[in-house]
From TrEMBL:
Cofactor: Zn(2+)
Pfam families attached to this UniProt entry: ADH_N, ADH_zinc_N
Organism name: Streptomyces filamentosus
GO molecular function: oxidoreductase activity; zinc ion binding
The protein, known as: Oxidoreductase
Family from the record: Belongs to the zinc-containing alcohol dehydrogenase family.
Sequence ranges assigned to domain Enoyl reductase (ER) in this UniProt record: 12-361
Protein keywords: Metal-binding, Oxidoreductase, Zinc
Length: 361
């Protein structure tokens, strides 16, 4: 029997989000219905609302979530009712050219539930990133559920489903930060701070946090930055070089997603160093660099998609490290809110004093 639950939809471009009754079908083959316990508010949810992702309104927002599997469809063997899971937007297919070459963290053919959730009048909803978790329950592909230790509270665990994983993965997966490396992180929001946590976990000797907001720099220090640079106070490239013996950092992680910060990252790294772009640019942005510098400085210019994570490998591992006290994922939760407070959370994003607002259901 299809179920009726409360969920938050974005009805149209820039229209305020609202709580609506959502119809959840029974899970079909390969699908699962998950009872959501917590879901973080991410910039991507705001971009959906603004029409910045695509025009497939109405959206069922929310995608950084943890909850409990309620029911599964035919053929589902990896998860069972009662399992505590983090939802992911990289359900690997096992068949595409990336998967076949043993690189499933790049999977080019990830999948979502085949059936659609709807409004009461039958209008089909587009779930954000194929998840749609600002709702009491949601329908996903079973491969989007990653089982983890239930000892970690859902408002903390769920954050691994998007931004925190993207940042940690940018450092440990994409950037391959290793013991003794010098690392600079440009932009210290939730993603940049997670990159700092990842760099610290990997044994970086120096972690330089760069931002334009001193509150963000203070928080970055709490998260493990060894040095901070306020890029309003002077050239951040010079400052990073000065902190690294005049050479630049081994790995620079760009967590803003703008041409000017990318250029800073490019020049703030040592010869043969690595730039990791994890901030997401917008379509009109252009980058111009002397090609000779691209050649002459060597190294690697990489992008990090979702922290190049493999959820089945990385989520349980990071949950265990959190339980052991080796990383503190709880530090990312600024506030917990109710389902009808998401507009307020969007407004607070711009004030700069929130890493994550998390809806608790
Ligand atoms: N130089 C340095 N820091 C900057 C600059 C700049 N020119 N411009 C903005 N910042 C800082 C902001 O002060 C803020 O601390 O970058 C940080 C961005 O953080 P958030 O807005 O909280 O964004 P976050 O969730 O961390 O995501 C960062 O990754 O997923 C993408 O779309 C997301 O592109 C965004 C990026
Ligand atoms: Zn694949
Ligand atoms: Zn997100």
């Amino acid at each position: 029997m299809p179920q009726h639950v409360q969920g938050v939809i974005a009805p149209g471009r820039n229209e305020p989000v609202r709580v609506e009754t959502i119809v959840i079908p029974d899970p079909g083959p390969g699908e699962a219905v998950v009872r959501i316990q917590a879901c973080g508010v991410c910039h991507t949810d705001l971009h959906y609302k603004q029409g910045g992702i695509n025009d497939d309104f109405p959206f069922l927002l929310g995608h950084e979530a943890a909850g409990t599997v309620e029911s599964v469809g035919e053929g589902v063997t990896d998860v069972a009712p009662g399992d505590y899971v983090i939802l992911n937007w990289r359900a690997v297919c096992g068949q595409c050219r990336a998967c076949r070459r043993g690189r499933p963290w790049y999977c080019f053919d990830t999948h979502n539930a085949k059936q659609r959730m709807t409004l009461l009048d039958g209008t089909e909803l587009s779930p954000a990133l194929g998840i749609g978790a600002f709702a009491e329950k949601t329908l996903v592909a079973a491969g989007q559920c990653t089982k983890v230790d239930p000892a970690v509270a859902p408002e903390i665990a769920g954050l691994l489903g998007c931004g925190v994983m993207a940042g940690i993965g940018a450092a440990i997966n994409t950037g391959n930060v290793s013991r003794g490396d010098t690392v600079a992180v440009i932009g210290c929001g939730g993603v940049g701070d997670a990159a700092i946590v990842g760099a610290r976990l990997a044994g970086a000797a120096k972690i330089i946090a760069v931002d334009i907001d001193e509150r963000k720099l203070a928080k970055a220090k709490e998260m493990g930055a060894t040095d901070t640079v306020d890029s309003r106070a002077g050239d951040p490239v010079e400052a990073i070089r000065a902190l690294t013996g005049g050479f630049g950092a081994d790995v620079v992680i760009e967590a803003v997603g703008r041409p000017e910060t990318y250029r800073q990252a490019f020049y703030a790294r040592d010869l043969a160093g690595t730039v990791v772009l994890v901030g997401v640019p917008t379509p009109e942005m252009k980058l111009e660099l002397p090609l000779l510098d691209v050649f002459g400085r060597g190294g690697a210019l990489k992008s990090s998609w979702y922290g190049d994570c493999l959820p089945s490998r990385d989520f349980p591992m990071l949950i265990d490290l959190h339980r052991q006290g080796r990383i503190d994922l709880g530090a990312f939760v600024t506030e917990t809110i109710a389902l009808d407070e998401i507009e307020k959370a969007f407004a607070r994003m711009h004030e700069g004093d929130v890493l994550r607002s998390v809806v608790v259901l």
